[in-house]
Specification:
The chain is built from 21 helices and ten strands. By secondary structure, it is α/β, with parallel strands linked by helices. The protein has a domain of 194 residues. The strands form two sheets. The chain has a seven-stranded mixed β-sheet with strand order 3-2-1-4-7-9-10. It has a three-stranded antiparallel β-sheet with strand order 5-6-8, with helices on one face. Helix 1 runs parallel beside helix 3, helix 6 packs antiparallel against helix 7 and helix 14 packs across helix 15.
């Protein structure tokens, strides 16, 4: 038997168990497993492939894994989580996994007899839970090192509450109830992810505006590197918020933002201040430039939204906010607040009711005059500063310009800059080290020396329970770096084709390309960790990691 076939055979046996004819009455009708009497060693290569892909890796799971792997660098963690949840729901509804782990039989369930017609619900629940835990979650965890913490935490929250249901007798929790609970757990997790992202954005925006609002700085500098999806979701909020606040106090993409925005932050965003965003990027990936372009689109859309809000403020097209001095549709020539009050009281259509008209005019005359004087300031044209409120400046810079940018902020006396780091994982331990994209260490070290605040922005799912064997992620294809030289000044000075070919050839020992994707940033450089659970210290992250470690032990412990 070829070595490749033996390897696949061992993998299949490890997943499905060696079959014994008539052991549990759960043969796959018409399958090669049944035709060969359950003897895995007698399966041919094509039979083994069929058995593996029908029992362990069905098309639904195979397609989802292929899509997740192909788009792992383009989709955010939330989109990848949605992909995994949709795949899980499809597997649950199809009851995929009942034929897997045929060699396992719970000790608490009596062995089958000759009168057994089907598998007990306890056995099916046990096998389904094992399949979801050891096959589905296992494969998604290995899609990429960056998304592995998210997938692991996602399936941990789904499967841990299902384990007691799987261990319960069928009389208490039948198979149908167990599958319904699995479906509900997946749907609940999808909602929880979105609410967690909204909470993280809310806390991050409050933390960003905190220093500038209390110190009344005219310029707030925020710096980041790369194109982390969590950081991108955080930065789009202040861009939209400070642009539209003069037209609508609750003008934000996230409806929960205003709930935590303090009065000082609202005042800062309402004044002609400046929100300066600097995104560092390293060629040839240009991930920082991609984030800058996305934020620029948000700024342009927000300006248009602000103009629309100002237009609606003085028209009846706005169903939420009407001008207090505008005449109603049925008002007479006088119009204004007085006429509207008379119309509501029914006096406008009564003849000879001069006493009521005089009373209304006396009571609301002062209010009418006050609103008339305040009209221009509240609902009039935009202030002289342009769009009104803070302005947004978006700047892209190379990663080796961090020292120049931060030193310029310090020399001009524009206050303390804020650096946001998007990370792949928060490593366990009280040190607070994080695994972040390459260049984050340089940015954090420079920011620390020049007096800037360094905050990690991450979901609590990124906090690991145990340190991985290696902290370095998979390396980029070296041709990405070589392709980035095309059209540059260096190529105009000297031909780089020969050097690029030699650097891309692994057989050339004297020249190579450094294409590592991530690095470990020491926790001593980080001032805090912004998560959906709050603003944490390194000790707080370690406690969450310990809680996750206990949950993982409980899930993977044998009953």
């Amino acid at each position: 038997m070829p070595r490749r076939t033996k390897v696949r055979l061992r993998a299949c046996v490890r997943r499905t168990g060696r079959l014994k004819p008539g052991s549990d009455g759960a043969h796959m009708r018409g399958s090669p497993l049944r035709l060969w009497g359950g003897d895995m060693s007698r399966l041919k290569h094509e039979h083994l492939s069929f058995a593996y892909h029908s029992v362990i890796l069905p098309p639904a799971l195979d397609d989802a894994l292929h899509l997740a792997f192909s788009l792992r660098t383009k989709l955010s963690h939330f989109d990848l989580a949605d992909l995994a949840l949709n795949c899980f729901l499809e597997l649950v509804q199809a009851r995929v996994g009942e034929s897997a782990f045929r060699g396992s039989w719970p000790a608490r369930v009596p062995r089958p007899t000759g009168d057994t017609l089907g598998l007990p619900d306890e056995v099916l629940k046990d096998r389904l839970l094992r399949y979801w835990r050891d096959v589905v979650a296992h494969h998604f965890d290995h899609v990429s090192s960056a998304s592995a913490p998210t997938f692991a935490a996602l399936f941990l929250r789904i499967l841990l509450p299902l384990k007691p249901l799987a261990l319960a007798p069928a009389t208490a929790v039948p198979l149908a109830s167990f599958l319904r609970s699995a479906t509900d757990a997946a749907l609940t997790e999808g909602t929880r992810l979105r609410l967690a992202a909204a909470s993280l954005e809310k806390l991050a925006v409050a933390k960003i505006l905190e220093g500038a609002s209390t110190e009344k700085r005219q310029v707030l500098h925020v710096l980041t590197a790369g194109n982390d999806p969590v950081v991108a979701g955080v930065l789009r909020e202040p861009v939209h918020y400070v642009t539209t606040i003069s037209a609508n106090p609750y003008g934000t993409l996230n409806p929960h933002i205003h709930a935590l925005t303090h009065a000082a932050a609202v005042e800062w965003a309402s004044r002609p201040n400046m929100l300066s965003l600097t995104i560092f990027e390293s060629r040839p990936l240009c991930t920082g430039a991609a984030l800058a372009a996305r934020l620029h689109e948000v700024a342009l859309a927000s300006r248009e939204k602000a103009e629309q809000l100002r237009g609606l403020a003085t028209s009846y097209e706005n169903p939420w906010r009407a001008h207090p001095l505008a005449a109603g549709p049925d008002a007479g020539a006088d119009g204004g607040l007085r006429q509207r009050v008379l119309h509501e009281l029914g006096a406008a259509k009564r003849e000879g009711n001069g006493a009521l008209v005089a009373s209304v005019g006396e009571s609301y005359g002062t209010l009418d005059s006050l609103l008339a004087r305040a009209e221009d300031g509240l609902f009039g044209r935009p202030p002289p500063t342009g769009l009104g409120g803070a302005r947004v400046q978006i700047r892209a810079a190379t990663d080796n310009a961090a020292a120049s940018v931060l030193s310029g902020v310090k020399s001009r006396g524009e206050g303390q800059a804020v650096v946001l780091l998007g990370v792949e994982a928060v490593l366990p331990g009280k040190g607070g080290d994080v695994r972040a994209p390459l260049g984050s260490w340089l940015l954090a070290e420079t920011a620390k020396k020049l007096g800037a605040k360094v905050f990690v922005v991450a979901m609590s799912d990124h906090i690991l329970s145990s340190r991985p064997a290696t902290t370095a992620a998979a390396q980029h294809d070296p041709t990405e770096l070589l392709a980035g030289w095309s059209g540059t000044l260096a190529e105009e000075l000297v031909s780089l084709d020969a050097f690029a070919l030699a650097a891309a050839d692994p057989r050339q020992p004297d020249v190579s390309v450094f294409c590592q994707t991530s690095e470990v940033v020491p926790g001593r450089l980080i001032d805090g960790y912004i998560t959906e659970k709050g603003f944490l210290s390194a000790t707080g992250c370690d406690l969450l990691g310990q809680e996750r470690r206990v949950a993982e032990k409980e899930l993977y412990a044998e009953a």
